[in-house]
Amino acid sequence: MSYHNIITAYDGSKASEKALSHAIKLIQGNPGSKLTVANVLVRPAYAFAGYGMVIPEGYEQQIKDHQNSLVDQAKAKIADLPYAKVVILSGTPATAILDYAKENMCDLIVMGNRGLGPIREWMLGSVSHHVAQLAQIPVLIVK
């Protein structure tokens, strides 16, 4: 089966690097197909239950710099593909990816099998697991 509108999640992890490489190969095998590389900007909560956190000086800039670095890395990897782009999404990663895929009529989601550390994944569940469970289109999880 060939896919014509693929979205792949990219967070700079080894797993997302592998997923992006695989998505690029799929696109190269189907001329005219589109590839969207999605990076989800996750902002930590600064306040909870009436308590606030002191944000270290320069923290917002560090987040922005990291985001820009990831976007630049992704753009470099897809520079030779005529119908490829990088988008920055915000919100909960799984929801943001699924919403984008639905709104843009993607026909395949490609993701790495893990991006979180083992403790965060155990506590929160993996993004790829949530996407695979809730997606209405095929999901390819690359190991």
Automatic annotation (TrEMBL):
It holds the Pfam family Usp. It comes from the Bacteria. InterPro entries: Rossmann-like_a/b/a_fold, Universal_stress_UspA, UspA. Residues 3-143 form the UspA domain. SUPFAM superfamilies: Adenine nucleotide alpha hydrolases-like. Belongs to the universal stress protein A family. This is Universal stress protein. It comes from Cohnella herbarum.
